Amino acid sequence: MRMRWHDLCFLHWRVDPARLAPLLPAGLTLDTFDDAAWIGVVPFRMSDVSVRLTPRVRRLADFAELNVRTYVTAAGKPGVWFFSLDATQPVAVRVARSIFHLPYHDARITLRRDGDSYAYASTRPERHGPQAALTVGYRPTGPAYHATPGTVDHFLIERYCLYTTDRSRRPLRQEVDHVPWSVQPAAARVVHCTVTEPFGIPLDGPPIAHFSASLDVVAWRQQRVTGPRRGLARRAAPRPARSSYGNAAVARRVSPLTPR
Fold first, then answer.
1. In tens digits, what is the pLDDT along the chain, a chain of 260 residues?
2. Residue 131 in contact with residue 188, Cβ under 8 Å?
3. CATH number of domain containing 43
4. Between β-strands 208-219 and 2-15, what pairing exists: parallel, antiparallel or unpaired?
5. How many structural domains is the chain composed of?
6. Would 211 be classed as within a structural domain?
7. Does residue 57 lie within any of the structural domains?
8. How many angstroms separate the CA atoms of 54 and 222, rounded?
9. In angstroms, what is the C-alpha Rg of the chain?
10. Helix extents (H) in the chain
């Protein structure tokens, strides 16, 4: 499956690992950095969503999305675990829930741009799951860069697979390929955020914010995985030489896509 992500803002908060670890299924290990777990709230829009060798249908391929995530490992491989994903395309929501076992919900989302500033608002109708909403304004504040291995930015952003579970709660891994993220530091004003309340996860203080203008992505078929039982995978404060995201892993991802 191919897609393009636009106008994306990573919003991250430090969270007590003891709050998140019990929420993970067996087989996934909570990934931590500097003894903290992290919650990401990521608003963006998608375009050109299509399955390989099928035509793009704009009405189905372009829509806004919001995801709530944390970071995990399985069998030693770091990735993303989604607590929820909200989208404005009802067909995509149902396909993702039934085929990819991802916790998608219908939502009403607006994303408006004024110069280099963005206004994003998402509301999930209560009949489509636990009520959750986000209202945030964001804008880039500096030049684009690639995150350095061993830093918290790299830990939070450079992830190349996602995890979910099948109907029997067995973990599945889905690899994703793209060039390394080009991100900018960002300023974000969170006006209203209840997207983590259904999971009992409080978000304290302002988030760390990063902005990315666009990224082309390829997602591959899900595979069943085995791994350690739930727990914590601790990662130290920045020490690049000891990072599990080494230069070889970055080099392997440098140019997997041919620009369209």
1. 889 999 999 999 999 999 999 999 999 999 999 999 999 999 999 998 877 655 555 556 799 999 999 999 999 999 999 999 999 999 999 999 999 999 999 999 999 999 999 999 999 987 766 789 999 999 999 999 999 999 999 999 999 999 999 999 999 999 999 999 999 999 999 999 999 999 999 999 999 999 999 999 999 999 998 644 445 555 544 433 323 333 333 333 433 333 33
2. no
3. 2.40.400
4. antiparallel
5. 1
6. yes
7. yes
8. 19
9. 17
10. 17-20, 58-61, 90-98, 152-157, 247-252
Q: How far apart are the first and last CA of the chain?
A: 15
Q: Is residue 258 part of a domain?
A: no
Residue 26 has which token pair? 């067996």
Domain-located, residue 260: no
- Sorted by sequence, the CB contacts under 8 Å of residue 38 that are 6+ apart come out as 12, 13, 14, 15, 32, 70, 71, 155, 156
Which pairing describes strands 184-193 and 37-50: parallel, antiparallel, or unpaired?
unpaired
Q: Cα(170)–Cα(167) distance, rounded to whole angstroms?
A: 7
Residue written as token pair 């990072």: 243
- In sequence order, the 6+-apart residues with CB closer than 8 A to the CB of 138 are 9, 11, 117, 118, 120, 186, 187, 188, 189, 209, 211
Domain range spanning residue 133? 2-252
